[in-house]
Amino acid sequence: MSGPVEVVAGVIRDKTGRILLARRTEGRDLAGLWEFPGGKREPGESPEAALARELHEELGIDITCGAPVIAVPQRYPHKRLRLDVRHVASWRGTVKGHEGQALVWAPPHTLSAYAMPSADIPVVAALLQPDRYLVTPAPNGSDAAWLESLEASLTAGIRRVQLRAPHCPPARWAGLVEAAVDACRRHGAEVLINGDIALAQAMDVGVHLRSAQLAEFDTRPLPKEQRVGASCHTLDDLRRAEAIGCDFAVLGPIAETATHPEGQPLGWEGFAALREDVALPIYAIGGMGIADIAIARAHGAQGIAAIRALWG
Fold it and tell me: Rounded to an integer, what distance in angstroms lies between the CA atom of residue 31 and that of residue 295?
């Protein structure tokens, strides 16, 4: 299969914050699915110029291109593409489907209800879900100090947390989880508990499956209202996580880490190569820091997952 087709798309909002989607017309591949408007980038054309041209041709509007959202590498049976999505900072004109395509202005919270091509699904997650995923360290000091560090992370803006504490005695961990869930709820943060489905059910929160647990399930272990994440290291892991209905995955390590020195780093190219074959939102993990979010997004990641870089 040849190199990827470069495609650009825009996130266009109206004055009320609704986002424009276009329906692929009959006779095209993936006909009937909804997507973010845009099209192919021509050789030698910048992404910004390509997006401006495509949206003028397709919708009759003139735009000012804004910041990147995410660039998703995706493999289809007959082609590979890289979908480079940008915010549209401003636009002028009257939106109309000049190619006969149906259009809809969708409130952001309804985007996931629209059937979309696989490359567009991670775009919805990038718009609506957190770009950083805190994994808690083991509580090696006092309970109070651990909870203070969690509180500091939440105050700093963390909104998705995996509660993980290897080797912590169960009775102590149950008390810490209860206090941690209370803290996360006060801050409006999502909570997932590492590996322990029974505890997640008891606390009415999500679960983060270890890679070794994926083979145990044919369907997701919790209802749709409770998030299910998964740790993945291979394409088989990712495909399994997607098949059982996980909401997102964590993939790595990207770089060498002190906690897993034996892990063979994927690097960003390795991450992007695995990203191509699933539609799941995927966090990059392993040596990640806040400064890596932009490069993670440029390789199709939802963002970063980390312990030390996000803790406290």
Answer: 32
CB neighbours (10 Å) of residue 137? 17
Cβ atoms 246, 227 nearer than 8 A = no
pLDDT tens digits, 170-228: 999 999 999 999 999 999 999 999 999 999 999 999 999 999 999 999 999 999 999 99
**Alpha-carbon dihedral sign for residues 180, 185, 188, 192:** positive
Q: What are phi and psi of 72, to 5 degrees?
A: -105, 115
Cis peptide preceding 253, ω within 30 of 0: yes
For residue 167, give the amino acid letter: H
CB-side exposure of 28: number of CA atoms within 13 Å?
14
List 68's β-bridge partners, or say none.
Answer: 86
Q: How far apart are CA 157 and CA 290, in angstroms?
A: 12
Q: Please tell me the distance from the alpha carbon of residue 157 to that of residue 134, in angstroms, as a whole number.
A: 11
pTM of the model: 0.96
Supply φ then ψ for residue 23, to 5 degrees: -100, 130
Distance CA 285, CA 21 (A): 31
Radius of gyration of the chain (CA): 21
Residue ranges of domains in the chain, CATH in brackets: 5-119 (3.90.79.10), 132-306 (3.20.20.70)
